Amino acid sequence: MKIAINTRFLLPDKLEGIGWFTHEVVRRLVDWHPDWEFIFLFDRPFDERFLFGPNVSGIVVPPPARHPVLWYLWFEWTLPAALRRCGADVFFSPDGFCSLAAPVKTVMVTHDLAHLHFPAEIPRAARYYYHYFVPRYLRRADSVVAVSEFTKADVMERYDIAAAKISVSCNGCREGFAPISKDSQARVRAKYSGGQPYFLYLGAVHPRKNIHRLIQAFDHFKTATNAPVKLLIGGRFTWQTGIIRSTWEAAVYKEDILFMGYVPETELPDLTASALALTYVSLFEGFGVPLLEAMHCDTPVLTSNVSSLPEVAGDAALKVDPENVEQIAAALKQLYADEKLRESLVKAGRRQRLRYNWDGAAKVVEQALVKMLP
């Protein structure tokens, strides 16, 4: 079988959520099926380290698709032509898009429908593209893989896609996330938080991630407890971040809130493993990978009671209404003061994390691809 794969998110030193899903799932498929031929379709010059085996070849398909106009050109014009040239039997697209003009069977991964739930927080051109093309992509795809039961239900409800067409995969945890010694934790705290305990957020800095309410809640927590704790916010600023900046500027304890910017991948595991707790009170997620990474580090988790987050967290997190600042602040107080609570969340996390791994995710995709065989 010859499988063409959309690998435009395999970017060296810039792998994020969809990029990691692509990397981990595709790497396993290549390893498991030396008899299959894989054609990786990049939208720019690529790093040959992403060609995971001798059964893989890479093709650059222009133009670089990072704008709605270029998305359209890539998915509806140059990509279908490339699929014809390479004689693919199946097209696998792991980034939430596919091609209406693809001349072959298509398996598509959908990660979330955030554009429907929070349309105002997406740039206008991208929002229009999503609203027009995403439902058409979901109907065009011969098989859809959702990353959570929540996302599957959302797709079925919002776009009337049949349940039989959608299988449920997951995300997994990247290598390296594991508990570290007390001495190592102390060194990490000395480096990042002046030696003090810290609550940690990792991810894009964007209003949908609810950073502004987390900052407000941390301010309430500090006012109530005067605890020697900092809040570390790791991740790149995206768009519409004015409310986050203004909330930080108004915070009484803004000197205890550190925006770290992009954190190198090599530093993320120890940073997570040394946190007092991961604080991930996002308004909407299709999965929520940082929760899983924290569980692998034996780090307690505070998260939201909405979207896919309760599904991923199970009993391994303290869950709050993300729009209720007082609830978030009260949960921070609990996590700081109650060591037994933290220990119970860690133990639950050790059980919950077994439910999600990259082998399981890849097997679901593998089964969907096999069903496309003639």
Supply the helix-strand structural class.
alpha/beta
Number of helices: 14
* CATH homologous superfamily placement of the largest domain: Glycogen Phosphorylase B
Runs in which pLDDT lies below 50 for 5 or more consecutive residues are none
Q: Would you give the CATH topology of the largest domain?
A: Rossmann fold
CATH hierarchy class name of the largest domain: Alpha Beta
- Main pleated sheet: 7 strands, parallel
Relative strand content: 15-25%
- SSE ordering: EHEEHEEHHEHEHEHEHEHEHEHEHHH
Please give the alpha-carbon distance between the first and last residues: 9 Å
Report the average pLDDT across residues. 96
Q: Per CATH, which architecture of the largest domain?
A: 3-Layer(aba) Sandwich
How many structural domains does the protein architecture include?
2
Quick one: overall form?
globular
| Amount of helix | 40-55%
Strand order of the largest sheet: 3-2-1-4-5-6-7
Total beta-strand segments: 13
Radius of gyration: 21 Å
